[in-house]
Amino acid sequence: MTSIIPERARQDWQALDSSHYLHPFTDFKELAAKGSRIITRAEGPYIYDSEGREILDGMSGLWCVSLGYGQDSIAHAVHRQLQELPYYNSFFQCAHPPVIELARRLAEVTPAHINNFFFTASGSEANDTQLRIVRRYWDLLEKPSRRYVISRKNGYHGSTIAGASLGGMGFMHKQFETLSYVSHVDQPYWFGEGGDLDPEEFGRRAAASLEQRIGELGADNVAAFIAEPIQGAGGVIVPPDSYWPEIRRICAEHDILIISDEVICGFGRLGEWFGADYYQVPADLMSFAKAVTNGYQPLGGVMVGDRVADVIKADGGEFAHGYTYSGHPAACAAALATLDLLQEQDIVRQVREDKAPYLQQRWAEMADHPLVGEARGAGFVAALELVADKATRARFDQDGSAGALCRNLSVECGLVMRAVGDTMIIAPPLTMTMEQIDQLMERARAALDKTWAALGR
Ligand code: PXG
């Protein structure tokens, strides 16, 4: 099977693309001038573009194709489900087998205190649902003043109004009005913001900014704290070990719900089923999406811990929330087939015991490169900080230009590596072989060398 599209046809696709298709998070004018890269085929951890280039997908699509491409069992499960029952909703007291089965199967892999699941079609909708659930919870407990949800600067929780308000992305906040009851505290980004502090001390200070904000708002006005176990889109920010235990203590002391946004960290990415398992955070609620279907179908949702489920399932009446595609049968079938693969092939354990230690060891070697100020990671996510001066951690002049350059050169070297400013990040498929991990390292290093040369160093 070829991925190649002849030159003329490719140009036609690119022209049509810029005439009619509004891409997400894109400068439309810039893209129209340049023309998009058209991806036509994918297999295992590789994608192939219309020029026939093989590119190792170091980002698992958009952090979602965690088991790689070409997983026929998922495709077949979706096909079978579409033939049998392509759609039915679970409004008006209906249900169907795949959604019931999926809820049961998720209860097997989530922490013991999480046994109820609300389904959506995306991570953004999952986080909208979080806001609705925590509000409902505190209202039913007759504590309606608990309205504020605290999140973090440079967190990412989606792009609906609620998701983007919860997120702490300044460049997004400039383009809409954020929700008034969301408040942002510091992120535990030691390399970027830790200065001379030792990382553990910095981690405690970042956590203390939550405690301080709770004090300012009044604990009786705070409903929940939401965070990603490791920030993904913000640049694979791995918190110092001191951070999560402090957050856990603070939330317990002030009786504040913890929402763990597992959209990236969930389903084995860190070598545990969930990021909350990895950091031993007793999350009351978890958001999920992406890898739950290996990216084969849009599905997300909220995993509801017993503390909250017991309240909203008791006598309070109707929970007035839901989506047409909540529990879509084909998406649930894709998730069930994905869970089958994860469990039958024992993928989470393999990541924890073999593959992630190897990936992280090889990635850490990159720290010797003259461009790299820090190499960090956990499980199957990792980051490199590009710096002009290793000793002072000084960035290049125009923040983001070195990163963008390295990202483009990385594709030339046959690797999708993403740039967040001058932070290069990867989240490759968990199913990569050791040889493919070696190949990723070779290509990443080649990209660094080319970037170094292009910067005239
Ligand atoms: N939470 C987290 C932690 C995410 O990473 C969402 C929620 C929203 O999910 P949906 O399915 O609504 O997109 C995300 C999504 C990037 C990038 O550039 C990351 C995401 C989405 C798009 C781009 O890294 N994460």
Q: Count of DSSP helices?
A: 17
Query: How is the main sheet built?
Result: 7 strands, mixed
Helix content: 40-55%
Distinct bound molecules: 3-[O-phosphonopyridoxyl]--amino-benzoic acid
Strand order of the largest sheet: 4-10-9-8-7-5-6
Strand content: 15-25%
Mean model confidence by pLDDT: 97
Low-confidence stretches: none
What count of domains describes the coordinates? 2
Structural class: alpha/beta
| CATH architecture annotation of the largest domain | 3-Layer(aba) Sandwich
Radius of gyration: 22 Å
Distance between the termini: 41 Å
> Regarding CATH, which class of the largest domain?
Alpha Beta
CATH fold-type name of the largest domain? Aspartate Aminotransferase, domain 2
- Can you tell me the CATH superfamily of the largest domain? Type I PLP-dependent aspartate aminotransferase-like (Major domain)
User: How many distinct beta strands?
Assistant: 14
Shape: globular
Layout of SSEs?
Layout: H1 7-20, H2 28-34, E1 39-43, E2 46-49, E3 54-56, H3 60-63, H4 72-84, H5 97-109, E4 114-120, H6 123-140, E5 148-152, H7 161-166, H8 170-173, E6 182-185, H9 190-193, H10 199-217, E7 222-227, H11 243-253, E8 257-261, H12 275-278, E9 285-288, E10 300-305, H13 306-312, H14 329-344, H15 347-364, E11 372-378, E12 381-386, H16 401-412, E13 418-420, E14 423-426, H17 434-454
Parallel strand pairs: 5-6, 5-7, 7-8, 8-9
Antiparallel strand pairs: 1-2, 2-3, 4-10, 9-10, 11-12, 12-14, 13-14
Helix pairs in contact: 4-14, 5-14, 10-11, 15-17, 16-17
Bound molecules: 3-[O-phosphonopyridoxyl]--amino-benzoic acid (PXG).
3-[O-phosphonopyridoxyl]--amino-benzoic acid (PXG) binds next to helix 6.
